[in-house]
Design brief:
- The structure holds 2 protein chains of 2 kinds.
- Chain A is α/β, with parallel strands linked by helices.
- Helix content of chain A is 32%, strand content 21%.
- Chain A is globular.
- Classes of the chains: A alpha/beta, B mainly alpha.
- Chain B: InterPro entries: BP-dependent_transpt_permease, MetI-like, MetI-like_sf, OppC_N.
Chain lengths: 749, 326
């Protein structure tokens, strides 16, 4: 793959605020006459903090060619967002920015805020991460788009601006754009608002579009839509795009070139295929190995990268990755390696002295010493012979929706959870997946609630909520069932030491002091933390360690079932791998069962045995994880799976994906028949007679029949462990919702 | 049950990392540093501490006390024998000021601390239980806010509480009455703060572990609104001192023979022209007291507020140091 965009190596020496003339000339010399729209040279950003000066970005260089996409990948704290803000001139005044940023030859650094305003939103535009807070709530979206037009085109007539706004909204795929101009941001969903943000960003045909984690806050199906919109926006405007993300899957399909950042410095740059198929820097290797794959059934342990990114308060004396690198030798600690070209590919650079030894045939599992796949003693026992730890029977949670201040009139019901039944056996990991609003969290809360007046029955370890829900049963139930929360920081009281955190459930269980002490030491070792850290406060630990503390707390009372609410979604990729491996190990060694709620289907596939797909409070497909993921029957499951970006550029480019139309409908106006009919790609392609059936009847959960071949071999074959709720699983898909990016299109200028 | 004794190398590496670098600064250290960076606040703290020390040891520097009458010096301006002069009754003003300052600080501190404590427990309880408990407790709170505090103080300290007056010194009575009427505003603020804390996962985690509500309120909610409580204590102390002065000034607070700054100021107002020292000395002390607290409050707010500008000053200080070393 040829690449025009060069992400070359520049001077790595840090530039003092008082650059001398020689250095200035040196930098200017690097701006060889190219046709790059944006070229960044030796960008350095320093912040001051309580602890001293943080050198957040240390010498970033790249050239961005028109119409190309550069993906900047890195973990949190690697300086990728700071780089983008520095380019936009949006950093606070306390930040010290040095180096050079040139937009079509024009130096941007050092311009006054007022001068920068001429470029921002005009030649260079940005899409931010959080669509919920980046639009002003008191103005209509039309006003906000027109504002962007007015600022840079004062002479444009009112009609022209309005016409342009309608055109823009239509371009980003907002239905009935003319009417929606007058809508306020709160009338749009998150995905729609992000579309509006993109419309505002491309309003003035920018030459450079910077997207800072544009889809991180969105659901997978919406993420697929927004990525598609970004793609069209780029095609329409011909802008160069800088795509900043932590998700290696998202950029695999989008980017032409990748820059991997670590500790404020690019450590590997090159064309997308070079980075994914031929990584030459151990950090990149580790990152790629740390991501679970949604399209691979074979189970291998994930690659954990030990340790933490370095502290940017102190200038690293050697390679910044050396403390975490399993290949580090003394030479690595002696001076920071520059970005050097990798032999064989002119545009591929890696900052590693051993890059030559790291060819494509190196097994990352060997390098990073990934633990072996743990095996549970329950794995050998057939599922039906294991005892049930949790059973839900027809759980419902309906919220009445009322209107009127004085006399409350019931205008409808929100069916958050509607008739849920499943069971979890010993030693098994059961996952619930679905978009936000599908009722996953409500299901968890219903289980944790464990109250007699609930609609439906919850049986935990043989204790039913219907029979006796007095205090004693409840406390017995609490010992069977514990929870790990999504946000490890929020789940630990900041004023408790780790000892106090872990002692709380034990004290509550009535243990005496010496027993608590021993148990805590045991727990610390169990989750891979040093026992002598018990006197530290949670804020003295990293995110991954905090989540380990949360897991230790859940395990304190020896529960049989642990409820995991998005346990790794707040963690960085490399840390996430360690926590997933730990969960896997604990399940095997302690015979635990998990109930996992996650939106990341790759993680679900990696860790679960069985999976349920929820849509609007109902299970639409349930079954063994490999069966459901490899052979999804329900159109929603198919759409969900196809929306997940895979960290493999080849697969991403050729893959056919289903882009669902619209958002999750509000549970209020859920259709009468099949909930999914409004967005269903099969439904859209069905003849009217069959559509009638979907709209009026509710499809029941039915088991997948064994295939003809299997039945002919073994007539009495048991039903497979996969159930789905759809009348026409084999129906044709609607063409409009199918999108393929083939190789040719991808390389179109 | 546990057979995993291997310590994760990741943890070990991270530990080394945390130990070697000063990444982690204790929160209290940060708050202390920021507070010390605010010169006004430090000055306030020094003045307040000096006044407190003065109120305890000041009595040793004079032979007079607040009850002895000097028949040879009645209504005399400051002199060698009486540092600050004497009152019309011939009592040494210095001794009275020392005593009055002590009573005022005592009332301020006790009322400030205890009322915030009551408010914290009451507000957290309301927020934790919600529903009916919240409604009833909120009603009680609103009712107390609407009660005319001034009248109750007047009745309790003069006419009505005759029995009480016999058993309790007037300053203790005033403390009790001030306490009853001083915690409601803070309690409402704390209620709303704790309600947002209740949404935090660690409270949910405790609930799911089956920790009893009383323990959750005391161990999880109260400490987490600590920074607000500290601010509210200094504010409450100022408020209580001012209330005492005001009540004593109009004659319904501290009663003679007990002395307080308010009593001294109130007694001297009618003769500002003839005995100016009787008026200005206690007024200055009161101003120093409340002023120092206000100065501290400002610094405390800066120290607790993570978005305050005090980091910027750290930067400047560092730069200057760097330049000096060059």
């Amino acid at each position: 793959m040829s690449s025009e965009t060069t992400t070359g190596s520049g001077p790595t020496a840090s530039v003092n605020s008082t650059e001398d003339a020689v250095e200035r000339l040196h930098i200017a010399g690097l701006h060889a006459p190219t046709d790059a729209v944006l070229s960044v040279r030796d960008l350095n950003v320093r912040f001051t903090s309580e602890n001293g000066v943080v050198h957040a970005v240390r010498g970033v260089d790249f050239d961005l060619m028109p119409g190309r996409t550069l993906g900047i990948v890195g973990e949190s704290g690697s300086g990728k967002s700071v780089t983008s803000l520095a380019i936009m001139g949006l950093l606070p005044e306390t930040a010290e920015v040095t180096g050079s940023v040139r937009l079509r030859g024009q130096e941007l650094l050092g311009l006054s805020d007022k001068a920068m305003c001429g470029y921002r939103g005009n030649d260079i535009a940005m899409v931010f991460q959080d669509p919920l807070s980046s639009l002003t709530p008191v103005y209509t979206v039309g006003t906000q788009i027109i504002e962007a037009l007015t600022i840079h085109n004062p002479t444009m007539s009112k009609q022209a601006k309005e016409a342009r706004a309608v055109e823009l909204l239509a371009m980003v795929g907002i239905p009935s754009p003319k009417a929606r101009l007058k809508a306020f941001p709160h009338e749009f969903s998150g995905g729609m608002r992000q579309r509006v943000m993109i419309a505002i960003a491309i309003a003035n045909n920018p030459r450079v579009l910077i997207a800072d984690e544009p889809t991180t806050a969105l659901d997978v199906t919406i993420q697929a839509q927004v990525l598609e919109v970004l793609h069209t926006a780029q095609e329409e405007t011909g802008a160069a795009v800088v795509m900043i993300t932590h998700d290696l899957g998202v950029v695999a399909g989008m980017a032409d070139d990748i820059m991997v950042m670590y500790a404020g410095k690019p450590v590997e740059t090159g064309a997308v295929d070079d980075i994914y198929y031929n990584p030459r820097m151990p950090y990149t290797l580790g990152l790629l190995g740390a991501v679970p794959r949604v399209d691979v059934a074979e189970k291998t342990s994930l690659v954990p990268i030990d340790g933490l990114p370095p502290n940017l308060l102190h200038a690293p004396t050697g390679c910044s990755f050396a403390p975490r690198c399993p290949l580090a030798s003394d030479a690595c600690r002696d001076g920071e390696p520059p970005l050097a070209p990798v032999p064989g590919s002119a545009l591929h650079h890696a900052a590693c002295i051993k890059s030559e030894a790291l060819g494509g045939d190196v097994d990352v599992h060997d390098i990073f010493a990934a633990p072996p796949v743990p095996e549970s003693r329950f794995d050998a026992i057939p599922r039906t012979d294991r005892s049930t730890v949790l059973q839900l029977r027809d759980i419902r949670k309906h919220f009445p929706l009322t209107k009127g201040a004085l006399i409350k009139k019931r205008i409808g019901t929100v069916k958050a959870v509607d008739g849920l039944s499943f069971d979890i056996r010993e030693g098994e990991c059961f996952s619930i997946v679905g978009e936000s609003g599908s009722g996953k969290t409500t299901t968890l809360l219903e289980i944790m609630e464990f109250h007699k007046d609930q609609d439906g029955e919850v049986v935990i370890g043989g204790l039913s909520n219907k029979q006796a829900a007095d205090a004693r049963t409840k406390s017995a139930m609490r010992r069977e069932l514990q929870m790990v929360f999504q946000d490890p920081t929020g789940a630990l009281d900041p004023r408790f030491t780790v000892y106090e955190v872990l002692a709380e459930p034990l004290q509550n269980a009535g243990m005496d002091r010496p027993a608590i002490r021993t148990r805590i030491m045991e727990l610390m070792k169990l989750v891979g933390l040093q026992p002598d850290h018990v006197n530290r406060f949670p804020n003295q630990f990293s995110g991954g360690q905090r989540q380990r503390i949360g897991i230790a707390r859940a395990l304190a009372v020896n529960p049989k079932l642990v409820v995991l609410d998005e346990p790794v979604s707040a963690l960085d990729v490399s840390v996430q791998a360690g926590v997933i491996n730990l969960l896997d190990k604990l399940r095997a060694e302690l015979g635990l069962s998990y109930l996992l709620v996650a939106h990341d289907l790759s993680v679900v596939r990696h860790i679960s045995n069985r999976v349920a797909v929820m849509y609007l409070g109902k299970i639409v497909e349930i079954g063994e994880v490999d069966r459901v993921f490899d052979n999804p029957r329900h159109p929603y499951t198919r759409a969900l799976l196809s929306a997940i970006p895979v960290p493999d550029p080849q697969v991403e480019r050729t893959r056919e994906r289903i882009i669902l139309k619209g958002d999750l409908p509000s549970p209020l106006d859920a259709p009468k028949g099949c909930n999914f009919a409004t967005r269903c790609p099969v439904f859209a392609a069905l003849p009217a007679a069959k559509q009638e059936k979907c709209l009026t009847l509710e499809p029941p959960l039915e088991a997948v029949a064994p295939s003809q071949a299997a039945r002919s071999l073994q007539p009495e074959a048991p039903a497979l462990d996969q159930q789905f709720a759809c009348f026409f699983p084999d129906g044709e898909l609607d063409d409009d919702m199918l999108v393929t990016h083939d190789q040719a299109e991808h390389h179109a200028p | 049950m546990t057979n995993l004794n291997a310590v994760d190398p990741a943890a070990a590496a991270q530990d080394a990392h945390l130990d070697s670098a000063d990444v982690v600064i204790g929160k209290s250290t940060i708050i202390f540093r920021r507070f010390m960076r605010n010169k006004t606040a430090v000055a306030g703290l020094v003045i307040f501490l000096a006044l407190t020390v003065f109120s305890f040891v000041g009595g040793f520097f004079t032979t007079w006390d607040k009850e002895t009458i000097d028949p040879f010096n009645i209504g005399m301006p400051p002199s060698a024998e009486h540092f600050l002069g004497t009152s019309q009754a011939g009592i040494d003003l210095y001794a009275m000021t020392v005593e009055g300052t002590r009573i005022s600080i005592l009332i301020g501190l006790v009322v400030g601390l205890v009322s915030v404590l009551i408010a914290a427990v009451y507000g957290c309880t309301m927020a934790y239980f919600g529903g009916k408990v919240d409604k009833v407790m909120l009603f009680v709170l609103e009712a107390l806010i609407m009660m005319p505090a001034l009248l109750v103080v007047a009745v309790a300290t003069s006419g009505g509480g005759a029995g009480l007056k016999r058993d309790l010194p007037s300053w203790l009575l005033l403390i009790i009455v001030l306490l009853v009427f001083s915690w409601m505003g803070t309690a409402r603020l704390i209620r709303s703060l704790s309600m947002s804390l209740m949404q935090r996962d660690f409270v949910k985690a405790a609930q799911y572990m089956g920790v009893p509500p009383r323990r959750i309120v005391w161990r999880h909610l109260v400490p987490n609104i600590g920074s607000l409580l500290v601010l509210d204590i200094t504010r409450g102390v100022t408020g209580a001192i001012l209330a005492e002065v005001a009540f004593s000034f109009i004659g319904i607070g501290i009663k003679v023979p007990d002395v307080s700054l308010g009593v001294l100021i109130g007694g001297a107002t009618s003769q500002v022209q003839t005995f100016p020292w009787m008026f200005w000395v206690p007024l200055t002390v009161m101003f120093l007291l409340t002023g120092s607290l206000a100065m501290m409050n400002d610094g405390l707010r800066d120290a607790f507020d993570p978005s305050s500008s005090s980091t910027g000053k750290a930067r400047k200080a560092r730069k200057i140091r760097v330049e000096k070393s060059k």
